[in-house]
């Protein structure tokens, strides 16, 4: 009897493989390619310490004589430096690997912070309703009426001035995560609240209340898992946005210092040399940034189509 | 002492410019292991009665007065934490549509284990054992495998069985079933009702069956309450109410059954509609539709009073009873 069932029912992995979600992924070449590129970039970033030929954070390893060498494929390229070097003689390939890693870490952590804040606030606002709801949503409106970059610039500029750039540079990663994370929580809060309002009316919530569950348990265990699809969709978009925000801030000199460059600060540091012919210092990290953000957005688009019940057809 | 004793329960809804009375001073008792039916048209207040018994009326509704004594404790005045100990544990509720009552993202097992562990100190393994036991009680085939399935993998009848199993998980003393078979196929309806009856009898669980199906009530219950416009208008042993209804509304309900009409003839329906809760006539709420209505019915609200084994809220019931006797002697 168990044998019959075993042959009829595929295993857990098989069920996942044949699920609508994975099926539509497999059938969508854009999604597959985007995912492949994203995984490639993510893996390269994760393995940066092993892949990078030199440690780009250690200035003692740079030789000023190697500065502004073009990439390997141009005539005067040096075989030691795949993507050439920057103005200090730093290997650009290593710097990009480490920079991508930083950008991804900041993007993901900032989005995690946004999600944590936004989901909790959205859940409470939607479930409790009434005055709590109005108060929290007006707070969100106020937060949204300031643009993220403006808040970030003011906050970072003030802290930089207050603590001096030495201390600031030391904690720049955390500052960036905090400021991007806090600035964008209303995106999550609004979406989550809207889904909670719809889910709250469903009978399984009534039945959970009838079974004697407390509000916290109903919110976290019953309503939240049913509200996940919009959260997934905005998360992808938000990761892309956070990476761009970080790059913009670093480009403006308010983010990662040139000694620990992220993609944004690399682009920024190369910007001064773009007219002297050293285009690669800016262009190559720029391309990496664009590709990274593009594939994340494409994945988000695909996910939105799959998870949207209105677009979903059998 | 009866298990549940509702006294003058009044539930109101605060609308934008007025307060609407959805339940008007209803009183009834449910004994231990007793099965009662609540019948009436849509909007009569049946479901609200069910929800208010668990003190789960959500805003803008509120309990405006009266007592709900469950085992001697007043549910209407209980704190949220105390209520939670009663809900699901000592009093359970079954809803209309099994397709939406179970949480779609949790497996059957997760939902059952969670319910058990929320009320009792049990290990996961112990809870799973009880869940399997209860699933077997409601005749779910291969219950161990069902525990790992999601609600969408099961049929409607199967899901309603599982919901009944969840309701019975903690051995409650009273089950409130709010039209438990309305959303199911006719063939499955009978099965589910039979199962519910069997389980209530074997476990000595009290049942409040909310329905508009008089046939189901006559099979399932010992006593019946007839509701109209937020009031109980007749309350008595089911057999009496079905065979010899006293209130003109109950008579109308029973006469309207298709079985009471010869094939090819028009159904004898009650003329008119139930009044909206916002404008209930001053006297008897049924008076505009009642063929026996007098001026007194239109101006003075009838109180519920006892005639033999039945309680009826009707001014004319005495005269009707006399007429009946005359007919019998003549």
Automatic annotation (TrEMBL), chain A:
GO biological processes: transmembrane transport
The keyword Transport is annotated on this UniProt entry: yes
Lineage top rank: taxon: Bacteria
Pfam families: BPD_transp_1, OppC_N
PROSITE patterns from the UniProt entry: ABC_TM1
InterPro entries per record: BP-dependent_transpt_permease, MetI-like, MetI-like_sf, OppC_N
Residue ranges of domain ABC transmembrane type-1 in the record: 100-300
Chain ranges passing through the membrane: 30-52, 102-130, 142-162, 168-185, 231-257, 277-300
CDD domains cross-referenced by the UniProt entry: TM_PBP2
A cellular component term, taken from the record's GO annotations: plasma membrane
Alphabetical UniProt keywords: Cell membrane, Membrane, Transmembrane, Transmembrane helix, Transport
Localization per record: Cell membrane
Topological category with respect to the lipid bilayer: Multi-pass membrane protein
Main localization (coarse): membrane
PANTHER family, A to Z: ABC TRANSPORTER PERMEASE PROTEIN, OLIGOPEPTIDE TRANSPORT SYSTEM PERMEASE PROTEIN APPC
Annotated family: Belongs to the binding-protein-dependent transport system permease family.
Name the UniProt record assigns to this protein: ABC transporter permease subunit
Organism, as annotated: Thalassovita mangrovi
TrEMBL record, chain B:
Domain ABC transporter: 6-254
InterPro entries registered for this protein in UniProt: AAA+_ATPase, ABC_Ni/Peptide_Import, ABC_transporter-like_ATP-bd, ABC_transporter-like_CS, Oligopep_ABC_C, P-loop_NTPase
Protein location: Cell inner membrane
Gene Ontology CC entries for this record: plasma membrane
Superkingdom, taxonomy of origin: Bacteria
GO function terms (MF aspect): ATP binding; ATP hydrolysis activity
Membrane-protein topology: Peripheral membrane protein
GO biological process per UniProt: peptide transport; transmembrane transport
UniProt KW keywords: ATP-binding, Cell membrane, Membrane, Nucleotide-binding, Transport
Record-linked Pfam families: ABC_tran, oligo_HPY
Keyword Cell membrane tagged: yes
Annotated family: Belongs to the ABC transporter superfamily.
Name of the protein described by the UniProt record: ATP-binding cassette domain-containing protein
